[in-house]
Amino acid sequence: MMSSKPINYELEKNMEVISQLDAIVGDAVDNVLVDPDDCWQPSDFLPDMSNPEAIEDIKLLQMRAEGIPDTVLTSLVGNMITEEALPSYQTYFNLLEGINEERNLLSPSGWVRWSKAWTAEENRHGDLLNKYLYLTGRVDMKAVEQTIHRLISNGFDPKSESDPYQAMIYTSFQERATKISHVNTGKLADKAGDHVLSKICKTIAGDEARHEKAYKTFMSKIFEIDPSGAMVAFEKMMRKQIVMPAVLMGEGGSRQSLYKDFSEITQKVGIYTGWDYARIIQHLVDHWKVEAVTGLNDMAAKAQDYLSNLADRYMRLADRMKAPDEVKLAWLK
Ligand SMILES: [Fe+2]
Ligand SMILES: [Fe+2]
């Protein structure tokens, strides 16, 4: 018997628009992402173990890292674990409708090339932070490794329904959110006297800024070609709220609350807060000039109304949200 799955016309249209962007995305791979030979690599920031003085460098690294507060260190570990789960991100991206129609990772399509070159850049973030944290001697590496293992096993669900439009909203939001987290961690590292860690965080944040810009540009194009569809996708994604990629890190383990504990700490130390969430919405609404878009269909006009007031609502929510008095640390020795 033939399956009689109804045709999803909205998704078909979105896939068609996505395929129109293929050349732009291919250009972004060549011009926004960086060739491996020209790109910074984790070893640029770490002691060279072939150097006879490496032990001295490690001692210095450990002395600098001594002053980092436990809460900041826990946040940094959580950020690192998030970066380490990128097999899930590459899989997610290639499963989106219209992105990898050939089901082939060696496809010359701009979108497929982007999915690989982007995650290859992300791979350096986890590598660098993982090695750095290991060298500080302050982290329970086995516990960290178990969390990474579990998180990748668990996967993640950004709730974008394999719709490429919603995925572009999600990634635009998420890249900006990680940029903010790394920038704020860098500032706290500076304050604690670890200027090398500060530089590491700022360098990673620079990558996230490039990624954010690219995803926002892809979405801007979608707004140009299909304003109503883009508006509706933006609304849909925001109603479901942006689920952080590492949300399943504690699932199935002995400490189910691990993700919640980690996000309470980032909230408390100001690495990533409810205000940041609200400000990111505002930024995206302004960037895509959501309030000025005209010629929308009824559904999209309603979405526009919803989005126009959304950041204010989250701002008020964040004002009322109190950071917990006590937080639970994780992954430390
Ligand atoms: Fe990253
Ligand atoms: Fe990124």
Bound molecules: fe (ii) ion
Low-confidence stretches: none
Helix content: 55-70%
Rg, alpha carbons: 21 Å
Average pLDDT reading: 97
User: What percentage of the residues does DSSP assign to strands (E)?
Assistant: under 5%
Shape, per Cα inertia axes? globular
In N-to-C order, the SSE pattern is HHHHHHHHHHHHH
Number of helical segments? 13
Number of strands: 0
Biggest sheet layout: none
Structural class: mainly alpha
Distance between the termini: 59 Å
Topology readout:
Blueprint: H1 9-20, H2 22-31, H3 54-65, H4 70-84, H5 86-95, H6 110-136, H7 141-154, H8 164-191, H9 195-225, H10 227-240, H11 258-269, H12 274-287, H13 298-320
Helix pairs in contact: 2-6, 4-6, 4-7, 4-8, 4-11, 5-6, 6-9, 8-9, 8-10, 8-12, 9-10, 10-13, 12-13
Bound molecules: fe (ii) ion (2 copies).
List descriptors.
333 residues; mainly alpha; 13 helices; 0% strand; binds fe (ii) ion
Structure, described:
- Helices cover 67% and strands 0% of the residues.
- It contains 13 helices and no strands.
- The model has no long low-confidence stretch (mean pLDDT 97).
- The structure holds fe (ii) ion (FE2) (2 copies).
Brief summary:
The chain is mostly helical and 333 residues long. It contains 13 helices and no strands. The protein starts with 8 loop residues before the first helix and ends in a 13-residue tail after the last helix.
